[in-house]
Design brief:
The protein is α/β, with parallel strands linked by helices and about 675 residues long. Helix content is about 40%, strand content about 15%. The longest helix has 29 residues.
Length: about 675
Amino acid sequence: MYISKLQINNYRNFSDIVINFNDGINAIIGHNNAGKSNLIKALSIIFDPATKKQLEIDDFNKYIPLEKLKAEPPKITIAVTIMQSKDEDLMSDDLVTVSNWLIKLEEPYEAQLTYEFFLPTKEHSKYISLVQTSTSTQEVWKIIQEEFIRLYTYKIWGGNPINQVTADGESLQKFDFQFLDAIRDVERDMFTGKNTLLKNVLDFFMDYNIKSNDNVSKEEKLLAIKVKKQEFSTAADTLLSKLHERMTEGKQQILSYAKEVGASFDKSIPNFDGSISDIELYSALKLIVEYETGIKIPVSNNGLGYNNLIYISLLLSKMQVDSDGKYLGSNAKVFPILSIEEPEAHLHPSMQHQFLKFLRKNRFQNKVRQIFITTHSTHITSSISLDEMICLYKDKDKTCVGYPGKVFGSNEKSKKYVQRFLDATKSDMLFSEKVILVEGIAEQLLLSIFAQYNGLSLEEKHVSVVNVGGRYFNHFLYLFDSRNPFAIKRKVVCLTDIDPERKQKSGTNFTKCYPFELNVEIGVYDFQQNTYLDIYEENKHPNIASFTQDKKYGKTFEYELILANPSLELLITDSIDNADEIKRLMEAYKNGQSLSKLESLLRNSKENTRIIEAINKIENGWEDDDKKKAIIAARYLNSVGKGENALELAYVLQENLAKKGTNEFKEFKVPGYISKAIEWVCKE
């Protein structure tokens, strides 16, 4: 069996939500305050006997409408559905444990537990009369705090809650819910045999070679362990005898004081005696770390991350102890659940990967049945499958849930592509409130700076810029398409190049061409442009929008930079070829020189000849200014090395921005389609 579903109503940030879980690892991801910890807390209210069941006023969701608050007292409901696992043996203890809570008898069976925190019915009339004149929700909550919260009570129902049958405590105790929060004192919790955790583990694994030997009978095991205990007792008695021998004279001196103060009377004399069992000696043991050199140091001298891993290993050992029916009999746990909050809090990236590998192994070995991890670590999300991810996010004031593994439907190709793609940097898109998807490294490096030139901050708006490495947008848009019920509803921008192309009518392959060659010599060539994302043009989709260059004048990102800034020498970085030639072209444009003058500044080359001939073949719709800008843009595009140039541009543009308000500042215009994209994604 496994916890397949959690339904929460009016608890903390959850107004009304249903969350589906996997039979195995469940990674609850999302940005801060998305509700990850509250989800685990909701589970612990039902399954963890140590969790406080009597809630407080601040545990209610405060977005309940005033009309609803006036109609009836608010109630918190947390319901879990427990479902039959795929390969579950119906003769196992699982079905027996949940048999009284079944809501579906046919396979796969389903059982339900429902926690309710409510105001008893006899108090309802008083509540209604007191809140009727309230004019705000704040006023109602104040009345609840002052007059009613102390009267609230709770129940955990088994089966259909309509029947109001209380879940039996004996069956609930079969669930072993272990929760590790992000801030934990592991030194306090584990490092000596005096601690219950370590003591229980030591006791279980003592003589484990005998206990785990399936080739001998139970009686033979008990006899062998009895012999071991007797041998230990004999050795302990010898030690105690030596201790008494060493204390002979000293004991007489100590006891003489007892006689003098009158502690010896009625023919009684104080003395020393005792024995040591193996269990009692556990308290003398403490965890250490032993290096290959033979050096031993206390575990308390380690870093938090290392000790947290040791603690989790001990905790899993304890869960193995608690679920061992041979050891605990009918008191054994049936269903061990491990919940870990933000494991990245104390682990560096490589240890996070190792930690997940460790959890998978324990899950495979059935030492823990179901695992819940809350995280906003991109390193952890890059180490798990899309099917294991559950994404919590805010849509206005409501907390919603998305399932990255379910959005693809039957499209396994896209699912596999995204799974391979989501490394530690790119999985950031799953945590951001808004996303800009771009084709290449240049846009990724420069978008944040462009936003600053427009007076906006992508960081403050929680916008992630993700380079998808080409025109592979469609694979990722499955994750965010709000028309899919499993998607993560986010504002998403796609920036793509329009990339005009042509081919000879007698040819087979399209090749790149310049905008000024587009639809010229139509008797010789066929033409096309990138229309890949036209279905996502602005206002065509609820939460996704695509932006590209002008269909008449546009080509690529670098080309567009110069169309917007035809005389800005700041854009000519150290890595650009033909820098002097481009500077002369920019200077001529700034000084208002003629088109023929700019053409004369181009050095002799096959590509430059092509540019000049094409510019002169344009018949309609292009002004001389358009043609001059196109010449500079084409020359710039042909001289750029994309990756290195983008890094240099990021540096010089950032440096220039720092000079804003001074005479040294150079005016830079963000390309129009990028400005529109940034404005759209940043708008609330």
